[in-house]
What we know:
Layout: H1 2-7, E1 9-13, H2 32-37, E2 40-41, H3 54-70, E3 74-78, H4 82-90, H5 100-113, H6 115-123, H7 127-132, H8 136-149, H9 153-156, E4 173-175, H10 179-206, H11 222-231, H12 235-260, E5 265-267, H13 272-283
Parallel strand pairs: 1-2, 1-3, 4-5
Helix pairs in contact: 3-4, 5-6, 5-8, 6-8, 10-11, 10-12, 11-12
Amino acid sequence: MRLAQYLNGIIVNADSMQVYDGLRLITARPSVADEAQVPHRLYGYVPLNHTYSVGIWASDVRLEIEKASRERRAIILVGGTGLYFRVLLEGLTPIPQTPDQIRIEVRQRFATMGREAFRAQLATRDPCSAERFNDPQRLIRAAEVVESTGVPLSIWKTRPKVGAISPPNLQKVLLLPPRTQIYERCDQRQRNIVIGGGIREAEEILKLSLDPSLPAMKALGLPYIMEYLKNGVSLEAVIEEVQRSVRNYAKRQYTWFRQQMSDWSVIESVGSEVDVCQVVNSKT
C-alpha cells in the first residue's frame, strides 16, 4: 500500500485464490477500505464455479500492465503464487484452451471413477503425467489436454515457452520475515478469519452446492470450515486444523521461494513494509 502510494502505482493480484469472488475473508483479500484507498486489480473477479488457470491470469495481467503503461503508472504485482511470477517472467507452454464440454466430461469422469482408476486410464494416453502426478487437479488437467489436443501434456511441456515479459524497470522483491513470525501471524490471522466472518462466507458458498473438485473449493481453510458446517465438529478443532494446514503451506512456500527466487532482493526484517520503499529507491 505504501509503495503504491509512493509510486502512484496500481496493485495487481498474483494469488491464485484471491481471484475468486465470494472468498474475501477466507483468502484474506485486501479489504474494501484498502481497495478504496489504492487501485487494486484482478481481485475477486472470477466466479467460484469457474476453472481459472495461470494461462488466463497471464493474459489478464498483461492487459493490466499495458493499461498502466499507457497511464504512466507503476504496476505492483503482489501475491504468494510463485507459479504466476514464473510464468510471467519465463513464459508459458502454448497449450490450446480446453473446450468447456471436454472439461466438464473429464471432471465428471474423475468424480465417478476415483483417482486411481482415472490415473490408470490416463496412463494409456499420457503415461508420464499419470506417473508423475498425484494431485487430482493435475491429473484432470493432463486428461483435459490430451483429450482436447491429442498430444500428451508431457509432450507439450517440452515445447518452447512463449509470452514472457521483460519490462525495463522490473524490480523483484521477496519478503521473508523470520519463520517464527510468519507462523505466529498465520495462526492469529486464521483464528480471526474463522470467527470474524469466515463461517458466514462458507455458509453462503455451501448454499451454492458447488462441485468440490473446483479450484475455488480448495482454498486454504475452506474444506475444514465446510466440515464444521456439515458435521458439527467443534469450532476450536476446526481453527486448529486450519492453522496447521496454513502453517504447513507457509513452510512449503518459504522453501520454494528460497530455492526458486534466489536472484530476487530479499527483505527479512520485521519492518519490511518500510524496507520495500528503500529497496525500490536504491534501484531506481
